[in-house]
Amino acid sequence: MVRRRIEELRRQLEFHNHKYYVENAPEISDFDFDRMMRELQELEAAHPEFADPDSPTARVGSDISAEFATVKHRYPMLSLSNTYSLDELHEFLERIERECGPAEYVCELKFDGTAISLTYENGRLLRAVTRGDGVQGDDVTANIRTVRSVPLRLRGSDWPAFFEIRGEVLMPYASFDKINAEREAAGEPLFANPRNAAAGTLKQQQSAVVARRGLDCTLYQLSGDGLPFETHWQSLQKAREWGFKVSDYGRICRSAAEVDAFIAHWDEARRKLPFPTDGVVIKVNSFAERRKIGFTAKAPKWAVAYKFKAEQALTRLVSVDFQVGRTGAVTPVANLEPVQLAGTTVRRATLHNAEQMALLDIRPGDMVYVEKGGEIIPKITGVELAGRPADSRPFKYIDTCPECGTPLVRYEGEAKHYCPNQSGCRPQIIGRIIHFIRRKALDIDGLGEETVELLYENGLVHDISDLYDLRAEQLAPLPRLGEKSAENIVRSVRASLQVPFQRVLFGLGIRFVGETTAKYLADHFRSLDAVMHASREELVEADEVGGKIADAILDYFADSENLRIIGRLRDAGLQFEAEERALASEALAGKSFVISGKFADHSRDELKELIELHGGRNLAAVSASVDFIVAGENMGSAKLKKAEKLGVRIISEQEFIAMLGGDGSSQDAAEKAEQGTLF
Ligand code: IVH
Hints:
Elements: H1 2-22, H2 30-46, E1 70-72, E2 81-83, H3 86-100, E3 105-111, E4 114-121, E5 124-130, E6 136-138, H4 141-144, E7 162-170, H5 173-185, H6 194-202, H7 207-211, E8 216-223, H8 232-241, E9 251-253, H9 256-269, E10 277-284, H10 287-293, E11 303-307, E12 312-324, E13 329-341, E14 344-350, H11 354-360, E15 367-371, E16 379-384, E17 409-410, E18 417-418, H12 426-437, H13 449-457, H14 472-475, H15 482-495, H16 501-507, H17 515-525, H18 528-533, H19 536-539, H20 547-558, H21 560-572, E19 592-596, H22 604-613, E20 617-618, E21 628-631, H23 637-646, E22 649-651, H24 653-661, H25 665-674
Parallel strand pairs: 2-11, 19-20, 19-21, 21-22
Antiparallel strand pairs: 1-6, 3-9, 3-10, 4-5, 4-7, 7-8, 10-11, 12-13, 12-15, 13-14, 13-18, 15-16, 17-18
Helix pairs in contact: 1-2, 2-25, 16-17
Bound molecules: 2-(butylsulfanyl)adenosine.
């Protein structure tokens, strides 16, 4: 009964997954999809005996830090010869015709992501490997399994028992913008373009991070021994039937004129695509002809990539401003003579940091090239030295803060300069308050950037805790406010006392603690006191918290000014504790667990979730208050010794699972879940 429901949900969810992520044609609402997903998660949690690594629920990834094994490609991953010139492209077409007579070409978009090779065995995804050096790459299977458009199991049954399919892992602009916004909020360096973001994400060590990054994967080449196809086109149609995402934009072209028209169309139309492309790939369609044409050492001779020119403009650099962010990071920004580029007027461009400026030897007054390739923010890519004034001198980077005059510092491993005067530097003070009131943090509306500046200027707020002392009578007389706005502000400040703990934690603006990390910290530690008193060792036990984040948290709570502010926020009544969760059973009530090592059937996340769902407590480190250690493969020997010394019981994954089902309470939970009464 339960098993049948689990299977039905998996089938339905995979079907709708395909509709949404592959066909871009959802049939049900996100709400209904999420509801089914939740039901499946609950059933699977209560019935670990029906676990399946290909279940749609497994697409959320895990928090295990993976090392990537190096794998040799069965067929080397070649590159393509590139050209920016239509003349060269026509020479390519003429060469093919000389060899094969009139040929058919498949024209495809050249996707601007990172190449991937997927191997399927008996219809199931076996392995995913990056291009690497073309001969061998990294095994990133765990990460690729979280990409919703990659089928874990194929549809139909006419696929070869063993084959490879290659394509491009892409980051759509929407995901890219979202991630960069999050990184900015957390004070982390931004990804320069979607390609870097896609490649960087694939190399993430925790697949749970990959799962949330919104990657997509388009496939464009099938390889295998004795594949039953005569043309590339045929093979792509089949791949689509088997459930792969194959671009709908490919076309068969039968002449140079048709190829030219394809290129001309996409050079313009690609601007409206939701993902980045950097050219068109022209491939001979017939496999027999391909065999005849052959390869060079590096690339096939039957295909060529025509690359679109990155749009560039030449303009004068008028001056350089320096912006100081909430974290004190200094960014040089170029003021340009306005210039038209890719349909917009560009007036400002980022110069990144001092090193970048020195590398390009950029000087005010120079004529500079501005580009807007895959990037959203225009950047300066070079200087036209011919236009340089004779009296020009190398640019000297600033060494004091442009806002408060404090000498700037450089931190190890960071390219930017920082102003260390956190509590006295205006943009840092105001930036922290603005971060705190953002929608995703305390969501204090009625207060925008300008109002925050106004309050600061009038001495009413100097830090986030001052917001909770504001009274309507103080605000109403200020310019542009009035009684109604004043009351609004006071009301929304009061409403923020109900904002859940995870958002309060995010709002504090601890470096590198973005929205997601805050959520994980809140889930793991459950209260601000627990986060504040956690050791470095305990902090890194929380999902997705590495050494860098742990150090930033320790620094934050070591600062007496921060502690004073937190004390005041506590007095004001903010939520410093996570909300209680609904339980599936009380099978583990009163028991504490430490999860250690790697497990065969569940991710560490899943085990932790099961512990909490059944009333148990997760602890970070082995101590006398731990009841059980659930030990997986390669549990650290130091932990093992400590556990033995303290007499803590060590159990296996299977023994742990048995604890859930042993008294029948998880059975009840599943039935409750099925009737929809649990949540
Ligand atoms: S076919 C034998 N088709 O471009 C080469 N590649 O510059 C097979 N790329 O490594 C590649 N879109 O990562 C092919 N429609 C497309 C492509 C494409 C993007 C990438 C791919 C390749 C690189 C070569």
